[in-house]
Amino acid sequence: MKIRDFQPADAQALYTIFYGAVHQVARKDYNFEQCNAWAPLDYDQHAWISCLIKNKPYIVEQQGQPVAFADLQDNGYIDQFFVSAQFPRQGIGAYLMQHLLQQAGLNNMPLLSSNVSVSAQPFFQHFGFFIVQQQMPVVRGIALSNTLMHKVLL
């Protein structure tokens, strides 16, 4: 495994990872309608690429193929953290989270935060994140539960 920076040519592969993570992994905690609102099959490719360019995610590659991605914003916010549903429980997410924590340390970030899905809460808790509040954001007209989580670093 190796970690590298995002390149615009990664956009389709990252959407495939995102879509699979939502529809295969998070599906146990969200219904069909919620998954479709969160990760629609028919999506705005330009908006997706713009989001990725803005977020500048780190990409985990395995055998030259993207298998996970996550970003870390300058304010310590993690907007996206997704691992391919084809590679569950292989340490890819842990490898990526360790990289984010290392980057946060190098940049003297005092706090990390993320709006975390029900499915990902145990993973984030394993890395020392704690629940700040439960939330019910509306995405494409559909309510999706998530949790604001923080991790204090300094």
From TrEMBL:
Alphabetic keyword roster: Transferase
Molecular function terms from GO: acyltransferase activity, transferring groups other than amino-acyl groups
Pfam families linked: Acetyltransf_10
InterPro entries reported in the protein's UniProt record: Acyl_CoA_acyltransferase (IPR016181), GNAT_dom (IPR000182), N-acetyltrans/Recomb-assoc (IPR052564)
Keyword DNA-binding annotated: no
UniProt key word Transferase: yes
Alphabetical list of PROSITE patterns matching this protein: GNAT
Domain named N-acetyltransferase: residues: 1-154
Protein name: GNAT family N-acetyltransferase
